[in-house]
Amino acid sequence: MKTFAGLRIHDIVENFSDTLIRIAIQQTKNMSEAEDIVQEVYMSLMKQRDFFDDEAHLKGWLIKVTYNKCKDYFKLSRVRKNIPITEEMTFMAKEEQSILPEIFELELEETTIVYLHYYEGYKIAEIANLLEMKVNTVSSKLRRLRMKLRFILEEGS
């Protein structure tokens, strides 16, 4: 059986699917499309040779491929299909569900930066590497996003 960073594909799906689905949902706002994208990510993984140094390297690769496949999704279909978030994201914690609508008011790239930093715990340099951006760009975007989210949340109170 094929392994990646010492993990079998079953273990990889078990460990990383929630993260990848969340990223894809943030981008597409459509559970069905998000699931298809994650399936494509796993198909891409199966075509790879095991070049991953460790589990963190594998996770970074999966996130990067998910993000890129989401960008491809928008290149192919210019129409966004919106599905009520609360019905589709029952696997998320209640506190996550309460702020998600505000996060979805951000631009696609912005939602990815916020998600990777606050939900996945990536540092700014790691996000810059994953999204192929400059560290200073990610840092300044994150600073502006904090202010923007604060404004959105205060406005809604």
Automatic annotation (TrEMBL):
Record domain RNA polymerase sigma-70 region: where: 13-75
Record domain RNA polymerase sigma factor 70 region 4 type: where: 106-149
Keyword vocabulary terms for this entry: Sigma factor, Transcription, Transcription regulation
GO terms of molecular function: DNA binding; sigma factor activity
BP-aspect Gene Ontology terms: DNA-templated transcription initiation
Cross-referenced Pfam families: Sigma70_r2 (PF04542), Sigma70_r4_2 (PF08281)
Similarity remark: Belongs to the sigma-70 factor family. ECF subfamily.
Record protein name field: RNA polymerase subunit sigma
